[in-house]
Write a structure and sequence with these properties.
The complex is a heterodimer of chains A (88) and B (255). Chain A has 88 residues and is an alpha+beta fold. Chain A has 1 helix and 4 strands; from the N terminus they run ββββα. In chain A, β1 and β2 form a beta hairpin. Chain A is globular and about 45 Å long. Chain A starts with a strand and ends with a helix. Chain B is an alpha/beta fold. Chain B is 33% helix and 22% strand. Chain B is built from 6 helices and 8 strands. In chain B, α3 packs across α4. The longest helix of chain B has 19 residues. The two termini of chain B are 16 Å apart. Classes of the chains: A alpha+beta (88), B alpha/beta (255). Chains A and B meet through β2 and β3 of A and α2 of B.
């Protein structure tokens, strides 16, 4: 099915794709048809720079369990980072 | 019928990318596949699925051409830039998908492009799978003047009003009264969009308006069961689906 589930956030950072590093300005999170993984549908994480065109994209397809684990790990690391006082 | 070719038939096909004047007068890409020879040939507008204007759809275009149809498959994502199909599809998805109005206009222009060919027999059908199935039903309902429409498990033909978006403001089921082309629908009972209940709703609406349609459902299949490159592939149901498509288009578009 086409779920059309998708959300976008403005991002600051960089991603490394086939052509090397590029700045990331938008991160997209979706749940829809999988292309590269064996799932029917997958969590779709795209790190992009739309100004550079559709190919400026680092993509991941994950199952929901991995997504939940990743959210927890991200939260944990963010809290540790904030406690450390190290600057971004 | 698949694999019913004669081994001494010498006809080939021609295929490649071109550009045509689509909705709003925009020049967009299309993959065109046609049989060699003077015709007359029926035409097919092939509406690609949500994963994009991809290799599977190019193969699908050539398959129809091999069976005697001139096919145009518009790149409905052409206005969103270029790259590998999954990258372009991801960009389109992030922006909420293509506008229904654009897709309908692009399909209508593709239909007219086919009819204007000197090799045309004057008849044009439209077919798509997944989002393309929805778009095929929508275009045939809103634009008319198609001679047949095939919906392969189009999701959101039936949709709640709260699921409407600026890109998809009206569910195609609400245009059922305006659908004048005969409709072939093919669905998997294990699909969740469209669910069997949604297929029932669509069928009830077609009956209510006295429309010509035939629906086929496969008990072992879910969404996208003809995609041989995906785990959802169900070979026997897929081949039966192809037979139904060729039989339907043969009846409605040839002769």
């Amino acid at each position: 099915m086409c779920t059309n589930i998708s959300e976008s956030v403005a991002a600051a950072g960089a991603a490394k794709g086939g052509a090397g590093w590029f700045p990331v300005s938008v991160a997209n999170v979706g749940f829809d048809h999988a292309v590269g993984s064996p799932f029917d549908h997958a969590l779709l994480l795209d790190f992009t720079d739309p100004a550079r065109g559709p190919s400026a994209r680092v993509a991941m397809e994950l199952d929901l369990e991995t997504g939940r684990a990743l959210v927890a790990a991200l939260q944990s690391v963010i809290e540790q980072a904030e406690r450390s006082g190290a600057p971004v | 019928m698949w694999n019913s070719l004669s081994t001494d038939a010498l006809r080939g096909l021609v295929a490649g990318v071109t550009a045509y004047k689509a909705g709003n007068g925009d020049l967009i890409h299309a993959y065109v596949a046609r049989p060699e020879g003077p015709g007359p040939f029926p035409g097919v507008v092939l509406v690609h699925h949500l994963p994009g204007w991809d290799e599977f759809y190019r193969e699908m275009a050539r398959r129809f051409a091999d069976h005697g149809y001139t096919v145009i498959a518009p790149d409905l994502y052409c206005r969103s830039g270029h790259g590998e199909p999954d990258d372009v599809a991801a960009a389109v998805r992030a922006n909420g998908g293509p506008l229904d109005d654009d897709v309908v206009a692009d399909c209508a222009a593709a239909r007219d492009w086919l009819r204007a060919l000197p090799t045309s027999n004057g008849k044009v059908g439209i077919i798509g799978s997944c989002s393309g199935g929805r778009h095929a039903v929508l275009a045939a309902s809103r634009e008319g003047s198609f001679d047949a429409v095939v919906d392969l498990w189009g999701g959101s033909v039936v949709a709640a009003e709260l699921d409407a978006t600026p890109q998809r403001p009206v569910a195609p089921i609400h245009y059922t009264a305006d659908l004048h082309a005969p409709l072939l629908g093919v669905f998997g009972d294990l699909d969740t969009s469209p669910s069997p209940e949604q297929v029932d709703q669509h069928e009830a609406e077609l009956k209510r308006h006295g429309k010509e349609y035939e629906f086929h459902r496969y008990a072992d299949a879910g969404h996208g069961f003809i995609y041989y490159h995906r785990p959802a592939y169900r070979p026997q149901s897929a081949m039966d689906c192809w037979e139904k498509i060729f039989e339907f288009f043969g009846r409605k578009l040839e002769g």
